[in-house]
From TrEMBL:
Database matches in PANTHER family: METHYLTRANSFERASE, FKBM FAMILY PROTEIN, SLL1173 PROTEIN
Full protein name: Methyltransferase FkbM domain-containing protein
Gene source species: Zasmidium cellare (Wine cellar mold)
Pfam families hit by this protein: Methyltransf_21 (PF05050)
Superkingdom of the source species: Eukaryota
InterPro entries recorded: FkbM_mtfrase, SAM-dependent_MTase, SAM-dependent_MTases_sf
Domain Methyltransferase FkbM: 48-229
Length: 256
């Protein structure tokens, strides 16, 4: 469907593929401040896993200009828009990686949804469950939402372990914020993170779908086992019967 340059607010434009979806993401990050879970140092080290077209990175670079951000996005079309947005906003200190994160290095088939590229996934069976859930709600809006997954493309993508990007970084002393929004492989990525890197993470926020039963409990248990205070929220946009959650982990006290 191609990318478009969209003005999301006066004086703020960005390239986007699925425009309506990106407007929603802009509101979530810039207006609702969904990821403002802790105050970070000026030179924060941030990981944006599931960067999409870069709204999270753009927001945190504006808030913390001296930060270093590692941004990961596997979908070629979306990565192209992400790259253009970094250039458009003349951002420094942002490392872009065109790959998915996973349990081990390799190549996997990625399902890309042109209408809602931010929902593209390595686990399309999860989207099938989401579609069924929307249909079962018997609501016109959510039934229409499920149809967004009707158009899909299969794309081979590189998959890498997150720790592979962190090993050997002599400047790495802490990971101030680890953001994960990767549509179905959250636990696989986190379980493969090496202990030395877990020890560096101060704050983590994960969007997760619990339609594959037990994944939410497993995520909360994992974060607690690593020493985080955990808080789980259901986003405002999630249907009442839905199983979409934002899980926040903080080391310095109860997650707020």
């Amino acid at each position: 469907m191609g990318k478009q340059l969209v003005e999301f607010a006066p004086g703020f434009s960005a390239w986007a593929g699925g425009v309506e979806e990106t407007q929603f993401i802009y509101k979530e990050i810039f207006e609702d401040r969904a990821y403002d879970i802790a105050e970070l140092p000026e030179d924060a080290f941030i990981i944006d896993a599931g960067a999409n077209v870069g709204m999270f990175t753009l927001y945190f670079k504006k808030k913390y200009p001296s930060s270093t951000i590692l941004a990961f996005e596997p979908a070629p079309e979306t990565f192209a828009a992400l790259s253009e947005n970094i250039k458009l906003h003349q951002l420094k200190g942002v490392e872009l990686h065109e790959c998915a994160l996973g349990a081990e290095d390799g190549t996997q088939t990625f399902t890309f949804y042109p209408i809602v590229p931010g929902n593209s996934t390595l686990v399309p069976e999860e989207k099938e469950l989401v579609t069924k859930m929307f249909h079962d709600l018997n609501d016109e809006f959510w039934n229409a939402a499920g149809k967004m997954y009707d158009v899909a493309q299969k794309v081979p993508v590189q998959v890498r372990r997150l720790s592979g990007f962190l090993n050997g970084r002599k400047d790495l002393k802490r990971i101030d914020l680890l953001k994960i929004d990767i549509e179905g492989v959250e636990l696989e990525v986190l379980n493969s993170l090496e202990e030395e890197h877990w020890a560096m993470v101060e704050n983590v926020v994960v969007e997760i779908c619990d339609l594959r039963e037990g994944r939410l409990d497993a995520l909360e248990s994992l974060l607690e086992s690593k020493g985080f205070h955990v808080k789980t929220e259901s986003p405002e946009w999630s249907p009442k019967e839905g199983k979409m959650f934002m899980v926040i982990g903080r080391r310095d006290g109860p997650a707020a």
